[in-house]
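Obj.: predict assembly geometry.
Materials: sequence records (below).
Method: joint structure prediction, all chains together.
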Amino acid sequence: MNKQQKRKLPPLAARMLYSIAAVFLSLILATLVMLIAGYDPLKAFGAMLNGAFGSANAIANTLSKSIPLMFTGFAFAVASKGGIFNIGGEGQLYLAALASAITALALNGLPRIVVLVASILAGMLAGGAVGALIGTIKAKLRINEVIVAIMVNYIVSLFTSYMVNGPLKAENSMTAQSEAINSGYLFSTIIPRSQLTSALYLGIGFAVLIFFLFRSTRVGFNIRAVGENASAAASSGIHIAATTIGVMAFSGMLAGLAGVTEVLGKYGRFIDGFSPGFGFTGIAVAVLGSNNPFGILLTSLLFGALEAGSMKMSYVANVSTNMVMVIQGLVILFVATPEIVSQFAKRKGGKRNG
Amino acid sequence: MDNLQYIFSFNIILTTLRFAIPLTLAAVGATICERSGIINLGVEGMMLVGAFGGVLGTHLTGNPWLGVLFSIACGGLVALLHAVLSIRYHTNQTVSGVGINILAVGLTVVLTRVVWGTDGISGTVQQLGTMSIPLLKDIPVVGALFRDQSPFLYLTLLIVFAAWFFLYRTKAGLRLRAIGDHPRAAATVGIHVRKYRYIAVVVCGMLCGMAGAYLSIVQNNLFVNNMVAGRGFIALAANIFGGWNPLGSFLASLLFAFAQALRINLSLPIPDQFVQMVPYALTLIVLVVVGRKAKAPEASGELID
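Observations (raw structure tokens):
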């Protein structure tokens, strides 16, 4: 697998063009699916655009849906730079969400800033612990992290499910969820009566942080060195195991923030099975954003817009909201297949020149 | 029923076998695929497409057996996509699997709405019936194994044996294992590595499709959104737990299915979620304990060109 990833990366502009081509190809195929199915693609995409950007509230919805995806995207990208395939975002965000909910509930009564900061940190710590566990198993036992992370995903999410079905279940609640956190402790909303909260700023802040981590710090350099050539990094004195565990801990914290911001932003409580696969979609977000934090902000916005627009598309054009998953799945496949996309891009370019 | 009485009754064996069928089919598929050195995380999606294909095929033809063939074709087709991307285009195999899983959830629901006009649930179709084997069905106790059972039970046992026989008793099977362990050496002695890999991945998809059909038109008579519900990943776990061996995959599937049977039929003193964890926890423990000495194909995920 590493051999495939080690292909030389083209410069930034080329990578951006490449990502755009991948999205474009996916939209073309999705259009074909709609045509074959007898839908009106123009009407569908029009409705989707309208649902995603047509009003202040639509934009707020798009942004709010992009927040968990940017965090899971960051998580995957950071691990990727260290040569690790973190498919464990799902487990990391679930435990983090639970930890932050428990903390916020336990500290009820303390000042807002204390509770909010403590809950965020508790979530990051929990997500980081799950990440570090996977990193440790990889570094110390040399076991493929993908399988380990998938098993951990299930174990952790089942554990959180047990907690809110059992000991932490809200009284008199029909569904499996924790008690509601005092609304004064949640992220504040940026646009009133929307789900867009100040968690967005946290996401942008982390994008900047990650950018500088890899641009101008020793730690970032070491992570990349290990990711690009572990044996060379080892011979230049970098501690491989410590770096792997550390980067997975950080990656887990970032994925954890996806859970934290859902709990402290969107729901105000822990709800069983709240993630529709943010951890997996984050992989697409990161790959499409070529693991660049600002690229990830953009691609998470794109995926957020797809999600936000899907409802409108569904009732205007009668297309199932799951069309969004078709597009996302295609984007993942295309963006991971450079040969097809560049062939496509070349042909397009060739036509224009001729 | 009293817990102890149930554990020692013959019923639990039947229930376990029933739960084990889809896991076994997909796990044996994963074994064959991964033995060729191609990682397949798309098992879940291939099962889902198979489940949908089974219902669609039955809906179109009115014959559930044709539905099964349809599901096999659908699973094989999705697997072919994975094979072409992984082998021809060098797509990262893990990413391709993740993409296929997401695509499968999306596409099956979109198409359900196209065909039946409903969201997330199809119309009902004819179910694949059960069969009894004359004479054998009249044996006391054990006769239940041959009375009113799904043909899938016998098919699955046959497939397990055939896959084992193929891998360990035929020249082609030996070659496939060689490809998974030392693809370059295999190519050097003139084995057509790509051809073997294409076939292995597609056969895996066909078995996954069959596993999906079992869920949709044998156990049920309709398709429901995301009805595979993680069984693909349990099957992957069974393949690993069973040491990348068809018989091992089958035994691991039986073990995981047994846990599921206990969960469904007993009022266990431990919370449900912990019983559900069994497959994942056991696999993780095996991975950690056996570690590098696990019998995984040595060149897993490695392409040679």
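Conclusions so far: Chain B touches chain A through 55 residues (CB under 8 Å).
To do: check interface contacts against the pulldown list.
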